[in-house]
Amino acid sequence: MRHWLYLASVLVFCGLPIAYIWVRHGRLLWRYRRLFAVMVLLSLIGGAADYFALRWHAWFFEPAQNLGLYFGTALETYVFAICVTIAITSAALVLITRMGQKKP
């Protein structure tokens, strides 16, 4: 069985862009580490909301493709929420900084 498939796809498709942007702009992004901490906390709260969607049967997780660790929702959901939050926050900070440096 491929219980790691969902987690692996999240880490590859979110982790690689995060790694790229942090390698290129890590010094800038590190200055905002407190913002990242707040955003990650908020993403965990948002990920927990997935619990209600599961209870309402809006969707489900294929047991054969996830680790089977549930904390209200699948562990992979929290990993996904954190990764997407970090990726979007990183990209936004880099773009905002670049826009502020350009002269009209």
Descriptive notes:
With 104 residues, the protein is an all-alpha fold. The chain is built from four helices and no strands. It has helices spanning 5-30, 33-48, 50-55, 75-101. Helix 1 runs parallel beside helix 4 and helix 2 packs antiparallel against helix 4. It is elongated. The termini are far apart.
Can you describe this structure in just a few lines?
This protein is mainly alpha-helical and 104 residues long. The chain has 4 helices and no strands. Helix 1 packs parallel to helix 4 and helix 2 packs antiparallel against helix 4.
List keywords for this structure.
about 100 residues; 4 helices; about 70% helix; elongated
Secondary-structure-derived class:
mainly alpha
Shape: elongated
| Helix content percent band | over 70%
Report the total helices. 4
Poorly predicted spans? none
- The number of distinct β-strands equals 0
The topology string of helices and strands comes to: HHHH
Mean of residue pLDDT values: 88
Radius of gyration, taken over Cα atoms and rounded to an integer in Å:
16 Å
> Strand count, sense and closure of the main sheet?
none
Distance between the termini: 56 Å
Strand content: under 5%
